[in-house]
Amino acid sequence: MTGFSIETISLNSPPPAEPESRLHNWPVVYTLDDGHEIYVGETLSAIKRLRQHRDSETKNHLHAVRVVLHERFNKSAALDLESFLIRLFAGDGKYRLLNRNHGIVDADYHDRAVRRGDFEEIFSTLRDQGLFERSIPEIEQSDLFKLSPFKTLTPEQALAVEDVLRSLGATWDAGPGVPRSIVVEGDPGTGKTIVAVYLMKLLQDLATVTDEEMAEDIDPDGRFAEFFTPSFRANVSTGDVGLVVPQQSLRESIRRVFGQTKQLSPDMVVDPFAVGAGDKHYSVLIVDEVHRLNHRANQPSARQNTRFREINERLFGADAPDLTQLDWIIAKSDTQVLLVDPEQSVRPADLPRSVLDEVISRSGAVGHHHTLASQLRLRAGDGYIPHVRALLQGRATAPAEVGEYEFLMFSDVSAMHRRIKELDAVHGLARLAAGFAWPWASKEDKSAYDIHLDGCSLRWNSKDTDWVNAPKSLHEVGSIHTLQGYDLNYAGVIIGPDLRYDEESGEVKFDRSNYFDKRGKQNNPSRGIVYSDEDIREYVLNIYRVLMTRGIRGTFVYVCDPALRRYFSRFIPDAEGIPAPADLTCNEAVGTEYHALHNDSHQRRN
């Protein structure tokens, strides 16, 4: 395609001086790099802007300049391309991105679809010049991209960020005794983690922005430009800002992203024990997945039980049974931003629903409760999650309208696994998942298999962290503890015998004898709590609701209990015409067919 060109110049050399040059008066996008760090910008006058960068202490080491000129660009198209390239550089990981985050928001404009078609050719040219290492599909599958602080916010997410910033301003102006917990509540797929990561970067940018950068780099029309002021900077820079992530796997993934991003560092991402035991007091703590914080319950190890008691004694003078990790966070920070979905609690050790309801109510009473309502992860529309909820509760009345979303029921787990392998070869990130309805024999015996269904033998996840990207993950089955907080393209969910259906009563019931998460059904003697089957059932239903909302493009379901399978089949289309692998065991089929498909797909994508 013609219409664009990329001019390569040096920041240390005088740029073209011809007054008719489009470098003087035309909307352009440019990159500055030194081989290790990169900055992406847009301007109406490249000559003027590059002179400013040459004289800047923060940019003058970025000597290599590439200016993207397009004969049909307007200001909106330039801003859109700038946003597009920033997201891809952040996800590629070759360079450390130096941009600040002051308002990458999705915005439409005339001929956007046409200009967007040019963007991929511009990317390919820059990749040919060595600025990118990976293709766009490969970048978009990476955690660096999915968890990037440079994600384009939807209008609803951007409004939530604005509301949180205004709530922060209100807490700074408030006197003592005013609740300082700000709550963002939303269902799976509404973007809570995106908002949390975006806020971390934005707050760090607000705290460290210089007067020179406010004058030169901050677009006054940007979504969050109103907060880039000396007074806001003075408030947000009074102390440390941290991001608390209770789940180990998700925490490690976000740490890797922060290591690639200017103004952020991996040690800003902490677990609740590090907050409680550390000496640092925070100005702001952002807490993702608040529902996964713990109350006083049996911890994974004796050492953590001891630490829980020691932290309570250190912070509050005594170990009281009603103290929780949320109390630690409130004690160790001036203000808290809490991202929560009460229906994603999956173990009795998670914060009780009463605690979550109280903090939500308290924040709402002072105007600090904000909601994310639009479902964005899944291409199934807003009706899918309520349908899954009703289905699992035994209250479904009709199939859901899911458009082109692949929501299918399998009667053979080998056929489902084969379909997952085929889709992974084409789209990537297609995985099997299951409830904890089988013992984890392979944890101790690496040659053992855990799940045996329809002649197919499978193992649980062999990694606790970053399992979805591990080489063996396509051969294995992920549990809730490896998948909560992650996106997949396709999820094949095995609903185990821990759930069964009573056809007389029309109820979905929990079978404790087939539930093997020991800490998922433990009583709490220290607090005198005994969990009934009905109590544990709610956690198990939450687990399956989370697993059935991981797949962006599709969700496949296999049900063990025959009666539950008959009930589900009334509301989920049957996956007809998908043959099971022939003449091979399930695991041999994984090894042979996957590699052939993967190699072919890899060649096509590149």
TrEMBL record:
Tell me the first and last residues of the signal peptide: none
Q: Where is this region: Disordered?
A: 1-20
Identify the residues that the record assigns to the GIY-YIG domain, covering every copy.
25-97
Bias (Polar residues) ranges: 1-12
Keyword Hydrolase part of the UniProt annotation: yes
GO terms for MF: hydrolase activity
Q: What is this protein called?
A: GIY-YIG domain-containing protein
Recall the taxonomic lineage recorded for the source organism: Bacteria, Bacillati, Actinomycetota, Actinomycetes, Micrococcales
